Amino acid sequence: MIRKKGFFGIVNRKERWGLSWKGWLVIGILIIGLVSWSVDGVYPFLAVTERVNTNVLVVEGWVHEYAIRAAIDEFNAGHYERLFTTGGPIVGTGGYTNDYNTSASVGAGRLKAEGFSPDLIQMAPSQVSGRDRTYSAGRALRDWFNEHHMTVRGINVVTEDVHSRRTRLLFQKALGDGIKVGIIAVPNPDYDPKYWWRYSDGVREVIGESIAYIYARLFFWPLGQETGRRTPGLNR
Description:
Radius of gyration: 24 Å
Largest sheet: 5 strands, parallel
Distance between the termini: 70 Å
Order of helices and strands: EEHEHEHEHEHEH
Shape: elongated
Structural class: alpha/beta
């Protein structure tokens, strides 16, 4: 770097390296490539489906009817013996009041409304509302397994499209390494996943879940003693 002084040494003139038009062209191509990858690759990255060999199917209770029907088809097509619904207090109700005021109960009701046998459904409701609902739902499921002395080596979780990768991550954190978590992503019928950026629902869900997954992957740290349930005397 060459320095030149002027005005009696008060200011310096510095010569430095800069990008030529070819350099800016290369950077532009890289940016375009990154944006293209994000548009084409982010949806399949978030909406992952990877099953494990298990006879236990889990449905996140907050999912819509189309995912409920897909869960029934999954159960009938597989070798499942039990279906669990998970979820905490319904949003907007002010917190936990009872197990029937939870997403787990809502999901169970939707399954029954679609003709699924009530004898095969088991609710595992969480009593935690607010932040980290997915993780708390996984902890409540783990607590149910422990309380009923049920040995489980793996589960498959049914959820909605781009929520699936984060669901698998948080359920795995909640259940621990002893239980393998498989995931089944059900596409949203309201938009074409190949062209998600053309739909307001697609943009909102993909961008929102991208941010949420980055947070869950890099910044979420579960407390060692946290559970999906509270002590009975503290429920109110």
